[in-house]
Amino acid sequence: MTEPQTTTQATAPRSLRLGLVGYGRMGRMVHTVAQERGHRVTAVIDPHAPGATAPALTPELAGQVDAVIDFSAPATARDNILFYGRSGIPAVVGTTGWYDQLSAIQAELAGQPAAIVWSGNFSIGVRLFTRLAAQAAALFAPFADYDALLHEFHHAGKADSPSGTALQLAQAVQSEWPRQPQLETGRLDRQRRPQELHLSSTRGGHIPGTHTLIFDSPADTVELTHRARTREGFAAGAVQAAEWLAGGRRGLFTLDELLDDVFAAQMGTGASPQPKHKPSPDTAARKR
């Protein structure tokens, strides 16, 4: 990506015109949160949802919205992202399943007026928890008595395991935990190998998502846990990302850049984040 940037002094409009691309469970939650934050939903793009304003993206969308929030489908993600980038429509992309195409998308959008934030999980709490997990791993790493392990719980209807968030968490831990560089996500009918970090999963009930990182030694156990109470946290993070983009930023960003900007503002540095070209924890590849 090229790097046309604005400063952190650029602020989002008080009220945004938002387009929602994909109007399933997450899209409807985003709609509710956006209205609660004083924004208007002026376009709903979905080929199946009742009440959608259009079944597919069209050039007219650029004049109808200040930003879009995309929770659609992996099959259309690449084309959608290229459309937003070439049209200059600020876009928050929560759709997953396209990260293997990230490098190609970056190359195609080079020199285009793209303004895109993407993440596999827009919960601000999850992103902060992931950073905390990496810091914890760095603290425990010098002490050989400690072993690390991960477990995640989700509702019975979740169609995959482990969760993408759990894979992001594992990648963050392993970045600071060199003695368990291999990730094992399957059922073990054998002894776990010393170099393996075991990530296990449970499915049942109605749990929105719980992720636990454990450091265990013969003397004690330390547990760090994030529990999502509802999906509202994911929707709120996506709307906040749209507000952040609508301040005039250009580039291809992850949610981590938004957090970096918040921290910079708190510290009074006023430094504008640069788009990252290398994969972040959001690009963790799924290991089945």
Automatic annotation (TrEMBL):
Single GO term (MF): 4-hydroxy-tetrahydrodipicolinate reductase
A single GO cellular-component term on record: cytosol
Residues involved in NAD(+) binding: G94, T95, T96, S119, G120, N121, F122
Keywords: Amino-acid biosynthesis, Cytoplasm, Diaminopimelate biosynthesis, Lysine biosynthesis, NAD, NADP, Oxidoreductase
Pfam family name, one: DapB_C
Compartments, record wording: Cytoplasm
E.C. no: 1.17.1.8
Residue positions binding (S)-2,3,4,5-tetrahydrodipicolinate: H155, G164, T165
Primary role: Catalyzes the conversion of 4-hydroxy-tetrahydrodipicolinate (HTPA) to tetrahydrodipicolinate.
PANTHER family xrefs: 4-HYDROXY-TETRAHYDRODIPICOLINATE REDUCTASE 1, CHLOROPLASTIC-RELATED, DIHYDRODIPICOLINATE REDUCTASE
Name of the featured protein: 4-hydroxy-tetrahydrodipicolinate reductase
Taxonomic lineage: Bacteria, Thermotogati, Deinococcota, Deinococci, Deinococcales
Gene: dapB
